[in-house]
Amino acid sequence: METKEKRLVNNTIIFTIGSLGSKFIQFLLVPLYTYTLTAAQFGITEILLTAVNLLIPVFSISIADGLLRFGLDKTLRRENVLKSAFIISILGTILSIISIPIFSLYPTLSEWMVYFIIILNLRMYRDVFAIQLKVEGKNTLFACDSMIYTFVLSLASIVFLVPFSLGISGYFFAYIVSNGISIFFILFFGGVWKSFTSGRFEKQLMIQLLKYSAPMILNGIAWWITNASDRFMLQWFMDDRAVGLYGVVAKLPLLIGTFTGVFNQAWIISAVEEFEEENEEWFYQKVFHQYYAALFLSVSVFLLLLQPFMKVYVSPSFYEAWQYAPFLLLSSVVSGIAAFMTGFYVAQKKNLNIIYTTIAGAFANILLNAMFIPMLGVLGASIATFLSWFVIAIYRMKDVENFACFPLDKKVFWYLFLLCIQTITMTFLPILGIVFSVVLIPYFFYQEQEFLAVLFDKGRKKVCSFKKSKR
């Protein structure tokens, strides 16, 4: 039992060291962007990177998902899995170049086409090679790569945007340089190049990979619709400035999303490894309770500190965007819960269930954005994002309860109800929201005092252990 938890905790710590540090630096880059780019310029960068995120699963055939699942399969040679995944990625590059005339039909992409194609393909290969590090159990190197990528991105952004004042071009240059250096590090310092050259192409394995990964294209597109289509709809109904304001506040849930992201990277590995082991029901329930407790506590505190934080975080021209943030922070909670459920699907190779639930949320997102953006503007996009993720979370919790040994903890719904009240009051009645927050946060801490005591004790032991190792 302790081995299961220890393995999960160790993987989470390693992924957190890399991702939390890198995401935190990206989080700190937002003030730089708000002082060197106008809201409209920042909106253009959001549109291009959002389009990249949409098309990566299309042109890569979501092969990174297949590489992770089949690479962890002990009956297969992981070097051969990597070889097949790389060949599929090359085909994706060829298709992306052929598709340039289609991309050019969209004015924003047409103007910045060279940057768009380069970033799209660099991201595609970086995703595949980085996943291979996790497949090979090189989690420390995975974390190092994440930190190197962010350090280079930060340095390049400062150089290109401040002394050289390159504007949007400088923003994209920084992304190209950081992705290129990251790929070089993974291949030659992470040992992935050696794995690639020692792998053999197996036609049957490639077919299996495609059968698993191809349906995930729909999941990738649906995920994009839920997370990012609002940028395009804001540009359609409003303008680039609205996209820029939304893009800035969309960075606020970044640290929350980083926690859920790195945890779920480790959680998926544990869910796969512990599948069909004894006492897995107890293990799953305990992990989920600690996970959602940390989510609710952190977001509730963040909501209370939101307005003063925004005054020092962004330039005055972006400050008005604070009012769009509460619902996005709330959406990070329900999206985190939905992401946790993914571990059960991956463990049982029920990837179609992931797709169905994500598509349901995508349809909800499109309809809600079309309803709310014309009425409420940028705030409407924030509300639509929360509601669509709520649909996905509820769908997945009910679905997982049907096929896994995982009875739902009803306490999560009570916590969610309270956090919804805090979000609504902070958005529309800030003074009342502050009063409610001052009452709610101590209540959360009181309810989770046992979990917090355990967390504090484990943290204290880690610090003591670290000090002893230094002596």
From TrEMBL:
Keywords: Cell membrane, Membrane, Transmembrane, Transmembrane helix. The keyword Membrane applies. This is Flippase Wzx. The chain crosses the membrane at residues 12-35, 47-68, 80-103, 109-125, 146-166, 172-193, 205-225, 245-270, 291-310, 322-347, 354-372, 378-395, 416-445. It is a multi-pass membrane protein. It is found in: Cell membrane. The gene is wzx. Pfam families: Polysacc_synt (PF01943). The keyword Transmembrane applies.
